[in-house]
């Protein structure tokens, strides 16, 4: 593993196991720089590259990135098209290096509603990295937490209907095993850039006890220093999980 440079005092032995990031602020960045919105999204992919590499180098177990929500289809068609193109470009340019870095890619969300080319690229990325044992990189595309929970409920209901499962045996573990994030640790740290303080339908279930950090910087300006500061902030928090502190 590459030893990463640290830009804030971080204890590498107490890293969050699962970091989730709502990459927000590309539109405002584009407006600030008086460029087309697509340029804002493109600038955002540069941040994405460096955060993925650095997370892998630090030894983070799972990184979940919100790239496109089920609600984002409601944006102007030109913007949706630009985002879809960026998805293709991103995987085309990154997949070899991610493979080399032993990164395991998983897409969170319903791929069936995506255009054929995008779906094929995502399936290919998942297949090519399926045996990798390093960073679990979850990219949420056409993802919504409510849709994910409804899908999990349908899957459990089918098992009950087929007589494979009793309703009394539906536990929290069973439910989480039907989520896209099955088998992954819960989110420890959730970061949302751009100063917005909401989940916007991202990992509602998985964030039950996550620590939230809301840097005000816009996503294209989010750098490793700010990332490491978020992790240092996480490490300074007292997590109680409902218990009484000693
Ligand atoms: C986040 O940036 C990226 C996606 C939703 C794909 P936005 O495009 O939401 O940026 P703002 O919120 O308009 O600044
Ligand atoms: C959430 O950001 C979705 C992604 C970052 C992909 P939005 O910008 O779409 O969320 P709202 O509309 O501000 O809640
Ligand atoms: Mg936004």
- What structural class is derived from the secondary structure elements? alpha/beta
Low-pLDDT stretches = none
- Largest pleated sheet: 6 strands, parallel
Distance between the terminal alpha carbons, to the nearest Å? 37 Å
**Average pLDDT:** 97
Proportion in β-strands: 5-15%
Bound molecules: 3-methylbut-3-enyl trihydrogen diphosphate, magnesium ion
Overall 3D form: globular
How is the largest sheet built, in terms of strand order?
3-4-2-1-5-6
**Total number of strands:** 6
* Helical run tally: 7
Q: In percent, how helical is the residue content? A: 40-55%
Q: SSE string, helix = H, strand = E? A: EHHEHEHEHHEEH
Radius of gyration: 18 Å
Describe the protein's architecture and organization.
The protein is 41% helix and 13% strand. The protein is an alpha/beta fold. The two termini are 37 Å apart. The mean pLDDT is 97. Bound molecules: 3-methylbut-3-enyl trihydrogen diphosphate (2 copies) and magnesium ion.
Q: In short, what is this structure?
A:
Strands 3-4-2-1-5-6 form a six-stranded parallel sheet, sandwiched between helices. Helix content is 41%, strand content 13%.
Secondary structure layout:
Layout: E1 18-22, H1 26-32, H2 37-58, E2 62-69, H3 77-100, E3 104-108, H4 116-129, E4 136-143, H5 145-161, H6 172-176, E5 189-192, E6 211-213, H7 224-236
Parallel strand pairs: 1-2, 1-5, 2-4, 3-4, 5-6
The structure holds 3-methylbut-3-enyl trihydrogen diphosphate (IPE) (2 copies) and magnesium ion.
Magnesium ion (MG) is lined by residues 24, 27.
